[in-house]
Design goal:
The chain is α+β, with helices and mostly antiparallel strands and about 120 residues long. The protein has one helix at about 5-40, and strands at about 45, 50-55, 70, 75-85, 85-90, 95-100, 110, 115-119. The protein has a four-stranded antiparallel sheet, with no helix packed on it.
Length: about 120
């Protein structure tokens, strides 16, 4: 079976255009990740100790453990990470003021992912 050279050239051109468009998207993603990394530079990060689902309150509709501008002491629970039906309280590693909450209620989190920024 022979393949027409014109078809191959069209495919190559389409792939090159796709490659350029993906490269442009990669640059956009890198810029947004730079902004995120800069956000983390102004405080101390409290990271997730395990993979699971983050909850900002003890139950739906309850008051959240922390809020932006709120004071926290070392050892205070900042959120819960559920893993395999086990609710794991995540304690603050620092004293300070919450500058940023990096996750939303019910959001999946990875090990080492920043949860809050404390100043």
């Amino acid at each position: 079976m022979e393949i027409d050279k014109k078809v191959i050239l069209k495919l190559i051109k389409a792939l090159e255009e796709l490659k350029l468009s993906v490269k442009d998207l990669g640059d956009i993603n890198n810029e947004s990740s730079k902004e995120t990394n800069e956000d983390f530079n102004y405080g101390k990060k409290v990271t997730s100790p395990l993979v699971g689902t983050a909850y900002l309150a003890s139950e739906p509709g309850a008051k959240t453990f922390v809020k932006i501008g709120g004071k926290v002491k070392k050892g205070d629970t900042i959120m819960i990470v559920e893993a395999m039906k086990t609710m794991n309280h995540v304690p603050s590693s620092y004293d300070g003021i919450i500058k940023k909450v990096c996750v939303e209620d019910g959001e999946p989190v990875e090990f080492g992912q920043p949860l809050v920024i404390i100043e």
